[in-house]
Design goal:
Helix content of chain A: 25-40%
CATH architecture of chain A: 2-Layer Sandwich
Distance between the termini of chain A: 26 Å
CATH class of chain A: Alpha Beta
Oligomer: homodimer
Radius of gyration of chain A: 20 Å
Largest interface: A-B, 30 and 30 residues
């Protein structure tokens, strides 16, 4: 067989966080989480070429070739498993070339691996012509990168904790699509593109096994996830915003309580946190709700009308060119062949 | 009556922290805490003049006159109460002049108010010739500044949580005097003299009332306090060091989980934390154990022999002149009249 597919996907920002794996191999979380899928302001483009003319499976991310058997990067071994699973399901013996490119820095707490994994699983399904259902794709994506499973659909998405040891009930469903409450946007303030000192996968293991405070985190986050879903249903930004702030700080607190501690917030993050609380206090309402993933860059969830107020509050902390405003997206989609990152002639050429 | 007394006292550094008041008026803690009283490397000198020739009660701290009825500084109102209590106990009607000076910046997480309150209560007892017992002084000091009650004796000190609503069983006792394990010292790395954004007294209220994680903090700290006492008894630095690190991070985690969050660690604090973990990992033992009060300055508890290793690890983060090494002290003591901060002739002159 020979097929070339290009897809685009996006990060999703967790409003109620996933931190801590109850099963490391299956990427099963301790608590349900809730996210917003972003539009293509930040995106991953991935081309998959399936062809008998290829000699071996290769994968290039942001221009660099990656090894499927890299011991330090277990996600690539999982990827190889997924690839073989899909190849078998398609009764194919063709080799695969994957070229993926992020429009933003990776390993800086901008959910690049979630965006990458969601887009890749989507693209592989298309390239092999498998027609797998969304729930099946969600569970495949979850195994590669937990939070990527929330990125296969648009709008607001809830990832169920689940109860079963095999993880078949730990999948993502849409709470509301991106037409339900489009006023909600993510204003991203980039304060650092530095790679994190402690990887998310190490952190997901370390916090549950060493933090005393983490014992109560799953129950707190589960409650927050329920409250946030209801707030989204009612378009209640005051309730949603307070949960977003509390949940982010709650997660980072359990990170700090780990041994050795994990600290992703820096002085710029802290200045943003205080600036947002000052703004909210002076306006007498929650204008912005910050949330931080495993990195110092701030995601400020706000309503479109309030973007100028947030930008004014960040003056002197994050300059205009360090701010990206992303709306809600609708999940991954197939792009036209003209957008391919892999050339057909010369065969297998990587387009820059 | 007329009497002039000068005393010197020192800060104490908590190895298991006090954070959160179960009774705000009485300064009753949610958990027992454990501290080390420092030697006079950092100190507070306080002169108390009791005299019928004075027109009114006055107090000067670090050169500035303070108001006993300052609404923003409730500790001065408590101080006025204590002063009146002692005056009555001494059957005196004399007015008092208090001059107090810290050898280090205040409100920067260096326990200046604890040092100040312990020294003052000690000096007032001497100036009025009351001869109150240590337990009585401890409870008086606790009411002015909770952690000051640990500073009225030397070496390692435990402050009991207590159970009674009137606080009479929440007092401090010596775990071991400063001759028991004199190798243990506090290497203080000053990274900032900036005043904190959120006062300790506000934080003591905010965290218990808003942090979800704080619900489990008292039980954790109580356990840590017991373990730390035993480790001190056995001169077991490995166990003590691990508890010190975990307890500091645990407390700061509940601060971060408060709403709005309270954040005292800055980028320099974080660099120190990582440097100490790197050093401990490379030596295969706990060489240093950091702990932070309500400020970014690091207290690194270490053994005398390891001071050069800690200093080497801090190179590029805290310069030599920003490092103070304090051993263990024996608590407040009376100084010679030549050290008085108040002159007798001219009467009541403040000596610079």
């Amino acid at each position: 067989m020979e097929n070339l597919v290009t897809a685009i996907g996006t990060p999703n920002i967790a409003l109620v966080k996933y931190w801590g794996k109850r099963d490391v191999g299956l990427n099963l979380p301790y608590n349900s989480s809730l996210s917003m899928t972003l539009d293509e302001s930040l995106n991953t483009k991935t081309s998959v070429l399936v062809s008998d003319r290829l000699q071996s499976d290769t994968i290039y991310i942001d221009g660099a070739q990656q090894k499927f058997d890299d011991a330090k990067e277990e996600k690539f071994a999982l990827l190889a498993e997924v690839l073989n699973y899909m190849r078998e399901a398609a009764s194919s013996s063709s080799k695969v070339m994957i070229v993926s490119r992020n429009s933003f820095p990776s390993s800086a707490g901008l959910a690049s691996s979630a965006s990458g994994a969601a887009t890749l699983v989507f693209a592989l399904n298309e390239a092999f012509g498998l027609g797998l259902g969304q729930r099946e794709l969600v569970i495949i994506a979850r195994r590669i990168s937990g939070s990527s499973c929330r990125g296969l659909m648009g709008g607001f998405v809830r990832w169920e904790r689940g109860e079963l040891p095999d993880g078949t009930d730990s999948y993502a469903t849409q709470v509301a699509d991106n037409a339900h409450w489009p006023e909600v946007v993510d204003l991203i303030a980039l304060v650092s593109a530095e790679k994190k000192r402690i990887s998310s996968s190490e952190g997901h293991r370390r916090t549950p096994s060493t933090s005393e405070l983490f014992k109560v985190r799953p129950e707190i986050a589960e409650r927050f996830a329920g409250m946030a879903s209801r707030a989204i249903g009612q378009r209640d930004f005051q309730t949603l915003g307070e949960i977003i702030i509390k949940d982010s700080n709650n997660m980072h607190a359990t990170m700090l309580d780990s041994y050795p501690p994990i600290m992703y917030l820096n002085d710029a993050s802290r200045r943003i946190i205080y600036a947002i609380h000052d703004l909210n206090a002076s306006e007498g309402r929650i204008v912005g709700a910050y949330t931080f993933d495993a990195g110092p860059n701030a995601h400020i969830i706000t309503l479109k009308n309030d973007i100028p107020k947030i930008k004014a509050a960040l003056q002197g902390i994050a300059s205009e060119e360090k701010i990206i405003v992303a709306g809600q997206g609708s999940g991954p989609r197939v792009l036209d062949e003209s957008e391919s990152l892999i050339g057909k002639d010369p065969f297998g050429q990587i387009k820059m």
